[in-house]
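Here is one chain, start to finish.
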Amino acid sequence: MAKADLILLHAPSNYDFRERAIMYGPISDVIPSTPVFEMYPIGLVSIGAYLERNGVPTRIINIANRMLKDPKFDVERFIRKLSASAFGIDLHWLPHAHGSLELARIVKSLHPSTPVIMGGLSASYFYRELITYPQVDFIVRGDSTEAPMLQLMQRIKAGAAVDDIPNLSWKDEGGQDHHNALTWAPTSLDEMPLDYAYPVRSVLKYRDLSGITPFGNWMRYPITCALTCRGCTYDCVTCGGSQYAYKNSFGREKPAYRSPQLVVNDIASIQRYLYGPVFIIGDIRQQGGDYADEFLWAINRAKVRVPIVLELFAPAGSDFFRRINKAIPNYNIQWSPDSTDEEVRRAFGKGYSNAEIESTIQSALNNGCKRFDLFYMIGLPKQTYSSVMQSAAYLRGLLKEFGQDRRLMPFISPLAPFVDPGSKAFENPEKYGYRLSYRTLEEHRQVLQSPSWKYMLNYETEWMSRDEIVMSTYDVAMAFNNLKMENGLISPEVAAGVEARARGAIDLIKTIDRIVVEYGADSEEMMSLKQKADDLSTSSICQKKELHWPSASFMRNAPRIFWAFATGSAFKYGS
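Its structure:
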């Protein structure tokens, strides 16, 4: 097997998920991964491809997915056998605070002389605290770490000084921490290799398919993504990827975009290997109309046939959807208005009206949209239990108007488990009506060991307590569930299963509350609930398959992959 200079490891959210009874609840019901958050960030792919292109062999190993798939998988035994010049571990999303640090501790205990590098948005935000952990040697900060990572790996291999590498936090031989200036924030993403040939090649090079698999169900549902930008032009108050957060915490004054033609090249690369949905990260209108026009022209010319999912950040008109329909034969839309209450939506940072939302839906459905997903949230400024439940009343009218052809699919989920570090609400909670219980990385690391998602929530609001956030989540989810069944969006069997799990989850949360008081969170009585907690931590507010766009399984895509290798296209780097 080939040897890697850098091994990138992805940890589960909670390293002890196989041993502890934790009722994660619905925190991952509307994303592809499980509550273990085994889906690694796309940045690992771009880092790996960039370093490989520049002569640094790099391997991705999804430890979380291996642990999830094999209850007997021995992490320590596996890591002991690895050999590399450095190990990298992502701490991108804060729910990985426990797993990433524990995995880093294990790596350092087994390979004490090998540097451990961490990175990601959460690592970048908490860098001053994170570098004090003994298992962490380096932190590469910011949203675009490919070039600094290459410099760091070259210096590590040469035994050279690192004091001039931008964005780097590091420890000297005496254990003293240093923080180089956060100056590397490229204004374009055109030099970033996001070609999916890299992971395909890695499977053969390191003879490891399970290690690079993006998330647990990916073999049956091989969804991929293409990146249009890093940064954002919007300022949702709880978002750690907002314009405010990028400017104040990650050194980015304005978004960096990938050229439309290169994004389409990335999609074409995916299409060589897989016939599955490709999610386009970022609204293609963010940089302006010219960018969207160029993207649609290029994707039409490339004759892309895989299902394409486009994000909306704001309302759109019929002309926009006509152009999409002409360019993309199979397109879907995803939009997160976040609340059906216009006052709540404005307080969250989005100023458009329900009428504009309805007009956008109508325009898309009239112009060939195969499916339109709407996402709403619980736990927002000015949102009360009553306004959450009013979402169901609004949805009834919305489905009556648009639900007949079954292309409109609504979802609702809690803002959980955390308000994002770096967001406006995290930095100024009182201003936006939030009360934060945990502020440090260590506090978040510890709370991820809590017995239920209610205790993990790092916030309450002026308008809703933790208990109200939790109970309203299940109550409104059951209302949404019934309305989707009534309108033929899901079968009666699926609806019955979701409702049974939601009611079971409510009962289990009450049982956990009682055991915490009477016996303690680490008691045998709590451990006796493990199987039930695991069973009720998925599909309790919607059936996970409701999220799926049309796709062929990985095995049905095997001929495409074999053809790519036979013709040599799998060995060509993207632009």
